[in-house]
Amino acid sequence: TERVFSGVQPTGNLHLGNYLGAIKRFVELQQRFECLYCVVDLHAITVWQDPAELKRSIREVAAAFLAAGVDGEKHIVFNQSQVSAHAELAWVLNCVARLGWLNRMTQFKEKAGKDRENASVGLYAYPNLMAADILAYRATHVPVGEDQKQHLELARDIAQKFNNDFSASIAELGLDEKFFPQPEPLIAGPATRVMSLRDGAKKMSKSDASDASRINLTDDADQIAAKIRRAKTDPLPLPESIEGLKERPEADNLVGIYAALADSDPAAVLAEHGGAQFSQFKQALVDLTVARLSPITAEMKRLVADPGHIDATLASGAERAEAIAKPTMDAVKDIVGFVRRS
Ligand code: TYM
What function does this protein fulfil (predicted)? Predict the structure, then answer.
């Protein structure tokens, strides 16, 4: 069966990049697939999180999923720590993945920074936990932004090495030789890498010190307008065709954002706005962004104000997620050779 899995970290400041690169696509995929959308709280604690703030953030990410249009009843919305298979399978995969593979992960290098000796062991093993998230459900499709591509390639390598290392045991148990399917990344559309509004060479990020660099899903219409008006641009008018966006990262970024919000593509956006001055295009972008985000922001606020509904959605999601992950985990234990109580 085809199944979608994806995760978002509850580390504060959900932004337009998270929405366009991931959450908006989660909503679209519900038509075609059985979907699991996970608030990855175990991943969040790989760097220090204030406990009260973490709890608030978990609910806020769940609220963003629901407010954007994820159906928590037809599909599964849950937080990672409520399903023990994630941590359990991650341990087994820690023993499958090689140090050399993890040493190549660019996100670890970025996040650990100069003081690598002081990074948590969890931050280093982070991609193995991400592989466990996906493989616990034997998910076939994983919608993410461009920045997660390397982690997904690692998940594919880990799945393949597990299948190879344990091929005899898998055969003996009469299981499919491709016990873990190869998860396919879904990285597509005009906003797989939304850039900072202050610097077209940096990606929009939760951790950027400048709040003006990103549009938060909690920003109001005035904040959105101010940030877009102040967004960095070059002095030329918008080009007439997409070739003209080359070497113009800021223009490329704003056109991509517009296209994603309008469910369109950059060529169509330029057919309409090519030749316009940025002052004019930015006003159109403000109007579109506010029109698309403000209903989501309002619904998030409403949901977070009474966490009962969110917590119930997460609890029901966790129960249903566990029902899928448990048989996989039991099979993994048999494959590896652990003695199990029945
Ligand atoms: P996280 O929490 O950093 O980001 C959540 C999602 O948002 C995407 N994203 C972006 N997309 C476009 N432009 C941007 N500037 C931008 N910034 C972030 C991310 O690519 C991601 O899809 N490791 C993951 C969470 C995770 C996961 C998983 C994802 C844990 N387990 C299993 C898929 C499958 C992360 O840190 O995402």
Answer: Catalyzes the attachment of tryptophan to tRNA(Trp).
What is the C-alpha separation between 264 and 281, in angstroms, rounded? 16
Give residue-wise pLDDT tens across range 230-274. Answer: 999 999 999 999 999 999 999 999 999 999 999 999 999 999 999
Torsion angle (degrees, nearest 10) of CA 263, 269, 271, 272: 100
Q: Is 161 a catalytic residue?
A: no
With a CB cutoff of 8 Å and minimum separation 6, the contacts of 337 are 169
Residue identified by tokens 């406990």 is 51
Residue 230 lies in a domain: yes
State ipTM.
0.99
Which of 298, 314, 302 is closest to 58 using CA atoms?
A: 314
Same domain, 321 and 225: no
Total number of domains constituting the chain: 2
Q: How far apart are CA 187 and CA 189, in angstroms?
A: 7
Most ligand 1 atoms within 8 A of CB, residue of 18, 79, 216, 252 to mutate: 18
What sign does the dihedral 154-37-319-83 (CA atoms) show?
positive
Nearest CA to ligand 1 atom 31: 130
Residue having the nearest C-alpha atom to atom 29 of ligand 1: 7
Q: Which domain holds residue 12?
A: 3-192+306-336
- Specify whether the CB–CB gap between 128 and 151 falls below 8 A: no
Q: Yes or no: say if 191 and 17 are a contact pair by the CB < 8 Å rule.
A: yes
Q: How far is CA 134 from CA 37, 129, 139, 299, in A?
A: 11, 9, 6, 29
pTM listed for this prediction: 0.97
Which CATH number fits the domain that encloses residue 323? 3.40.50.620
